[in-house]
Write a structure and sequence with these properties.
Blueprint: E1 2-3, E2 10-11, H1 42-69, H2 78-82, H3 87-125, H4 133-191, H5 210-216, E3 224-228, E4 266-271, E5 284-287, E6 290-293, E7 305-307
Antiparallel strand pairs: 1-2, 3-4, 3-7, 4-5, 5-6
Amino acid sequence: MTICPCCGFKFVGTLSEGCAECGARSVGEALPKPEHELPSYGRSLLLAVTGALMVLVFLTQTIIALMQRAPRVTPILALSSVLPLDRWSWVAAGETAAWRLKWIAIPVTIIVLWGSLKIYRSMLKSSARFCGLGYAKTGIMASALVPVLIAVLIGVTVPERLHQRQLGLEAASYALGYRLDRALLEYSARYGTLPADLKDLDRLPDPDGSIAAALSSLDASAYKPSADLAALPKQKSQTLRGAVIRNASLDTATDDLPGEALSFTNYDLPLPGADKLMGTEDDLFVHDGIIKKASEGVHGPGTTPVSTTSAKP
């Protein structure tokens, strides 16, 4: 089967006899192949450039992260401060670059390695036709080394990042406790006592809605206000002129009980921890603005709290 180079018609025969479609014919015999052919370097160059580009991208991201971490300095010391010589600064910058490139590196690595290995195998089948096999192999190794390095740097930082995430969740729980404590202090300063129920905090101005958001994320019934008997003011007994008080009661069991106008001075408030569930190990306990783990406890010695359930009129 012969294909005419002029019209593209396929026919059986030779071009010396002429094309059956357009009549074109060859003017001579085809040139023989040269005895010595120069090997091709295009595929080797492609693999080497691909590996170099991947290394260059990672190195560029590392330098950018290093410059962002560097403090502001004078122009004289700018270069030495932006590009420090200690290895831990470079490791930290490499970790930052690895996290930035993680989603790009996965698909790019799959495509690059698949294409590079396919090209390299074709070069090995006809090694006499291609040169620079060593450079091609180096390019493939560089292409594979970059994703491995990214995976190692990410794996090293995973425990610390999980720890930082846990600290962030705990900080959010502590922020809830501090916001409620601030609201309770504002209520005490305005009304002279702590509220008997957290729902009473609705009487406070809440322009940003932070109090309402805090109350919606916890169980208000867990709030326990109390009064310290040692801190209650002693009331003087009234003396009736011209009258004799007979059969005075000396019952000391009721003398120390607070009256109806009880002013709450202390409170206990359990809060959910980072898991947002009550009854777990990470629960928090707020006692008069001091936030601790529920397992640690906050009651100090020498105090006799009187809760709302034990107060008698």
